[in-house]
């Protein structure tokens, strides 16, 4: 790339600019004082794509991308230029041609990466945008100069993959007899049972290394099965403990909301907490447990899951106010020893309207597309996707524990393995296992036995600049 040092030419251009053009009638030409970048467009780009050949080896080929399809925003307040939609993974931005326009045809220069030396911008010269670059635009009258920072965002992760990170190993996870994870606000919590009592641990969802045992200001023990009876909604935790409904916004300070006589809590969303009563009926409370009303079912209540329960919230693709509440779990092992699969129920919630009945997601006829009956079965939602896994199969299920992640995109009707979602390499856990998603759809997994805490995310998440404002 041929570059001319700008120092001499800038000086020369300013001399020419400041020389008044006097005509015979003594009229003076006035040059504008505005300095601004008004347009930034990329030219053709190269993308290097790696694929798997039939023999399993990697094969790389080159694609040409039309850079003008990727819109760049110019923030005139903060003087930044950026693309909110990142360029595809593998795009080469070290040698990029671009078209940059300045107001009133002002002079544009670019600062070198390694020094403050300025180089003339030339649309025929390629620019290295692998690091943020500084543009300077000079007004025609020479009185103003404005700096812009250009960020050309490129996806840093291969699309359509799921990346796991082993964030820590925790003794309280390793020693757990049973546990349940859930998120609340920007916190991740794990309720751990040692077989005699339970303890709640918490961390910020950006951390995962430092876990704090939560306080307990209530004058009663936390029973061993408390992990089965904790749910979260509207940035508040709800716990059923000693025939009492308790709530907390931070996991440390708890207050009593009502007395209740239930079998267990099963879900929470919107203005309702859902539970199974002592007769095994599904009931709901809209007043934090003070009163409980029976829910309408479209099928027999004997099909309700009663153990290894998870609940998921699935958004509607059409109406943002519509959600589907999904209940996933197993029936009682003693009462239904011959089950080979989990049981799934769903309920549509329209805004504050919770009157729709619960619908049993009927068993499909394809054995290889069912969600098997697994010990410590856990299901989580990532947008409209549902992921589930668990330990060894029991009853009539012979599925090996943690053999795969089961995936459903249709509300729990069909379940299948997909290459996008897989368990971490070297994953292991005993049957004390739990998982949950946080507020950013990261999946957390907690593995009894070795105490591993895994955190995973999909590379399809946008990598745009969330803090930039377009004006």
Brief summary of the model shown:
4% of the residues lie in helices and 40% in strands. By secondary structure, it is mostly beta strands.
Describe the structure.
It is a single chain. The chain has 471 residues and is mostly beta strands. The protein is 4% helix and 40% strand. The chain is built from 2 helices and 34 strands. A 6-stranded mixed sheet has the order 4-5-11-10-8-9, with no helix packed on it. A 4-stranded antiparallel sheet has the order 12-34-33-32. Residues 1-24 and 462-471 have low confidence and may be disordered.
Gap between N and C termini: 34 Å
How much of the polypeptide forms β-strand, as a percent range?
35-45%
* SS summary, helix count: 2
Fraction in helix: under 10%
Q: What shape does the CA trace take?
A: elongated
Averaged pLDDT: 89
Major pleated sheet: 6 strands, mixed
**Which regions contain 5 or more consecutive residues with pLDDT less than 50?**
1-24, 462-471
Q: In terms of structural class, how would the helical and strand content be classed?
A: mainly beta
Count the strands?
34
- Across the major sheet, the strand order is 4-5-11-10-8-9
Oligomer: single chain
Global Rg: 30 Å
Features:
471 residues, mainly beta, 6-stranded mixed sheet, 4-stranded antiparallel sheet, 2 helices, 40% strand, elongated, disordered N terminus, disordered C terminus
């Amino acid at each position: 790339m041929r570059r001319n040092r700008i120092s001499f030419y800038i000086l020369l251009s300013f001399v020419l600019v400041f020389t008044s053009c006097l005509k015979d009638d003594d009229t003076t030409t006035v040059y504008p004082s505005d300095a601004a970048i008004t347009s930034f467009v990329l030219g053709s780009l190269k993308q290097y794509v790696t694929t798997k050949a039939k023999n399993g080896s990697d094969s790389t080929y080159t694609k040409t991308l039309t850079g003008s399809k990727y819109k760049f925003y110019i923030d005139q307040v903060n003087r930044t230029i950026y693309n909110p939609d990142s360029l595809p993974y593998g795009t080469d931005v070290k040698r990029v041609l671009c078209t940059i326009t300045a107001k009133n045809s002002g002079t544009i220069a670019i600062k070198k990466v390694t020094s403050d030396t300025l180089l003339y911008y030339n649309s025929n010269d390629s620019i290295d945008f692998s690091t943020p670059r500084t543009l300077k635009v000079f007004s025609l009258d020479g009185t103003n100069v404005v700096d812009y920072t250009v960020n050309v965002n490129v996806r840093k992760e291969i699309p359509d993959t799921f990346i796991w990170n082993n964030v820590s190993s925790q003794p309280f996870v390793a020693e757990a007899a049973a546990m349940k994870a859930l998120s609340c606000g920007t916190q991740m919590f794990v309720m751990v049972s040692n077989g005699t009592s339970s303890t709640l641990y918490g961390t910020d969802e950006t951390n995962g290394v430092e876990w704090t045992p939560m306080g307990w200001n209530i004058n009663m023990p936390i029973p061993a099965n408390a992990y089965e009876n904790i749910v979260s909604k509207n940035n508040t935790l709800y716990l059923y403990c000693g025939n009492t409904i308790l709530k907390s916004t931070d996991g440390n300070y708890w207050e009593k909301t009502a007395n209740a006589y239930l079998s267990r809590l099963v879900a929470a969303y919107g203005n309702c907490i859902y539970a199974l009563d002592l007769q095994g009926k599904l009931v709901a409370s809209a007043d934090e447990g003070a009163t409980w009303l029976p829910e309408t079912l479209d099928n027999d209540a004997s099909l309700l899951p009663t153990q290894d329960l998870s609940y998921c919230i699935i958004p509607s693709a059409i109406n943002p106010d519509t959600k589907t509440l999904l209940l996933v779990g197993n029936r009682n092992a003693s009462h239904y020893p011959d089950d080979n699969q989990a049981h799934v129920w769903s309920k549509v919630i329209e805004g504050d309207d919770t009157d729709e009945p619960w619908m049993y997601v009927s068993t499909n006829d394809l054995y290889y597309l069912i969600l098997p009956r697994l010990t410590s079965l856990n299901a989580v939602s990532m947008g409209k996707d549902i992921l589930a896994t668990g330990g060894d199969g029991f009853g009539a299920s012979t599925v090996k524990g943690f053999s795969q992640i089961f995936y459903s995109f249709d509300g729990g009707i069909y379940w299948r393995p997909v290459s996008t979602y897989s368990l971490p390499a070297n994953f292991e856990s005993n049957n004390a296992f739990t998982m949950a998603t946080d507020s950013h759809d990261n999946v957390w997994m907690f593995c009894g036995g070795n105490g591993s805490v895994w955190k995973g995310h999909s590379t399809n998440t946008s990598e745009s600049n969330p803090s930039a404002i377009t004006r």
